[in-house]
Amino acid sequence: MQNQHADLSWRSTDGAGEVPVSERFDDPYFSFENGLEETRHVFLAGNDLPARFADGFRIAELGFGTGLNMLTAALAWQRAGTAGRLHLTSFEAYPMDAHEMRRALTAFPELGRLRDILVAAWAQGGQIALGQTVQLDVIIGDARETLPAWQGAADAWFLDGFSPAKNPELWGADLMAQVYAHTAPGGTAATYTAAGFVRRGLADAGFEVERTPGFGRKRHMTRARRRT
Description:
The chain is of the alpha/beta class. It has helices at residues 35-44, 68-80, 98-105, 112-122, 143-149, 173-181, 196-205; strands at 8-13, 17-22, 27-28, 57-62, 86-92, 127-129, 134-140, 154-159, 183-191, 208-213, 220-225. It has a single domain, classed as Rossmann fold (3-Layer(aba) Sandwich).
């Protein structure tokens, strides 16, 4: 991976072990309360998963980070026992090193073998097989450049960039329009943030947008759906 790498510090918490914090954006990679449960609340439940899983289902993500969201989706897929294949695609500008990823994910022993597979394969780049039925592709580079060139369309989006106040580039109207353009009819998106300009950007792009209860101390989050 030749792009810029993540610049991290670490904070210890009572409930989440060590949490990596981006020095570039001064923002944690996942909740200090419980990153795994945050992912399940925001990105799985926020996209009505695993109820919508079906053969060939496609999830895309802005902000791969530690890989926690994609591993959580893969674990949910395995536990749901859905026949067929799940396709995961994530866009990341500042990839972690494998040893940093392992350190971050040790807080979540429930991820077990999936975590080990990801960490072992991460340094190789390209597509990663998370078991026999889940394929992960992480696209490295600025999503404002790489997403327009992507040929796919997602059934569900995980919008997980750093805080819009600190990383506004990943939440701009032009990028939200690209998210919409790369969403299948009836597809959805979810994010932990309820920032007004993010919701307006999604709505202006064509999504139906709603504000719903957030995780932990966050009062609200955002869900969106493409009708056609």
